[in-house]
Amino acid sequence: MGAMKPNENLLLNGDFEELQLGFPPYWERTDFQDMIFLWTEGPEASGVLRFQSSGISKTRPVVMQKGTRLVPGERYSLSILVRAKDFWASKVCFGLRPSSDENASWTGISEFPENCDEWTELHFELTAPPSPNGKYDVAIFLERFSGCLDVAQARLHALSDKALAYSLPTEGVSFETPPRIFPYSPLLQEIPAEKPV
Asked: What kind and span of H or E run contains 49?
């Protein structure tokens, strides 16, 4: 199992690249009536999720990535870039919970600014809660909100040594994550067929 590099993002497509699929791959969404996707409006032309409602929203928009493998009890950090205008929500969060329990509490960033014209980074360090299979869902969600909130560049980093050694990115196609190459000796093609031992 290959170790994560420090500051390597455990989320696939944390920059919300659209890749001509209509919505960033590896992210699921629900209740998107009050949410739009902006291809290149974020820093360094990254994608942006915009949550916007002129009144109190009747929807509960959720953008989620499932199946990230973390080490329960180890340290991680969540970060995201935000812009806001006249934003208010009864509940808003960028956080994680065990995949095995949909009723579990979300742990993460729950304080968002009301107004900020420039991109602002929000950051939160946490200990991964217990999970029987070591898999976690990561989501951005809002309840009863008004105004405008833009989010970009979602990040989940391993901090502790054990978290770096045993965490794995969200399950996806292999070309989306850097290859993890390990030396193997002897090479299979160098083993003589007549003496396989």
From this structure: strand 48-53
